[in-house]
Amino acid sequence: MVGFNVAPFVGRELEYMKQAVDNHKICGDGEFTQKCRMWLEKKTKTSAALLTTSCTHATEMAALLCDIQPGDEVIMPSYTFVSTADAFVLRGAKIVFVDIRPDTMNINEKLIEEAITEKTKVIVPVHYAGVSCEMDEILELARLHNLYVVEDAAQGVMATYKGRALGSMGEFGCFSFHETKNFSMGEGGALLIREQQFIERAEIVREKGTNRSKFYRGEVDKYSWCDMGSSYLPSDLNAAYLWAQLEVADEITTDRMRIWNRYDESFRNCGYFQVPIIPEGCEHNGHMYYIKVKDLEERQKLIKYLAGRGVHAVFHYVPLHSSQAGRKYGRFCGEDVYTTKESERLLRLPLYYGMKEEEQEYVITCLRKYYE
């Protein structure tokens, strides 16, 4: 049996979690939370990186910091996870969906301006599979129309666009450390903040609306309720688990790229299906290898065939605009040329840190046999 995903584990996670217990500091902002924060800030060259309980919560924090109000509009692709939209819907925003590019499955930057109205507040590019959206054009549009950019970089840790870390280019960027991601703390995420002016309020929002972070740093003699907020701070136990992996992030990324490249070498010229396209200037992180088959019917047959041979391959997002909540809280701008069609063709292959060579070769062999 070749599973789709195995959560990363490098060997020191339990040792570091025990250290957190021995330090009598297992709530948030302990030693390991700070280690992760400093690593993220150094790696992404951003002003601040705050660990959160999930990428969902990081995006909710971003929505609060953008001061989203009922009736505001937020532009994003429909091909994304529900959290991308939920974070803004919770603040009363209307979601405006834009079609994707068929090559990267990312938002089509050429269609964003058409979706902008006087109510638009934020553009949310989603970096699918750790491959960047066309950020130069998106950032320029945001500048011209005075909009915030919140990057959904859930899959983008260690990936770059023209040398810049994903998540570091907009006002805010959101990472995921869910068990399905390249680096995991079980459930967790991080909010990247580009500009210093947002950091103090972000810390308050993250600490239930209090200035407790300033209190712990000795900047105030007692903390108090200052603003709206919630409990977005993860346990230091989770951070200790994550820190073991961030310490060897290059090793994990190299291993995932080895697996990604082996798939690509096997299928790049096979002619049976389409494979990922990586645009110039985009350096991805080996998060996902997918193929795109003829249509939905072929995909269902292939999934069943692989499952019958012990290979767990899975499809991905069902476009949000086709869902009950998507119709209620959003609208699609323009024509759905690629979003639904391309989403129905996409199939993700098993890929995880430590995947054995023979496991991958078995997946490759099964696919070849199906088509040959």
Strand content: 5-15%
How far is the N terminus from the C terminus?
Answer: 22 Å
What is the element string, with H for helices and E for strands?
HHEHEHEHEHEEEEEHHHHEEHHEHEH
Q: CATH superfamily name of the largest domain?
A: Type I PLP-dependent aspartate aminotransferase-like (Major domain)
What's the helical proportion of residues? 25-40%
CATH class call of the largest domain: Alpha Beta
Can you tell me the CATH architecture of the largest domain? 3-Layer(aba) Sandwich
Q: Could you say which structural class the secondary elements and strand pairing correspond to?
A: alpha/beta
- Weakly predicted, low-confidence segments: none
User: What best-fitting shape do the alpha-carbon axes yield?
Assistant: globular
Structural write-up:
With 372 residues, this protein is of the alpha/beta class. The chain has two domains: 234 residues, Type I PLP-dependent aspartate aminotransferase-like (Major domain) (Aspartate Aminotransferase, domain 2); 123 residues, Alpha-Beta Complex (Aspartate Aminotransferase, domain 1). Helices cover 38% and strands 13% of the residues. An eight-stranded mixed sheet has the order 1-9-8-5-4-2-3-12, sandwiched between helices. Strand 6 and strand 7 form a beta hairpin. Helix 3 packs across helix 7. The protein is globular, with a radius of gyration of 21 Å. It starts with 12 loop residues before the first helix and ends with a helix.
List keywords for this structure.
single chain; 372 residues; Aspartate Aminotransferase, domain 2; Aspartate Aminotransferase, domain 1; 2 domains; eight-stranded mixed β-sheet; three-stranded antiparallel β-sheet; 13% strand
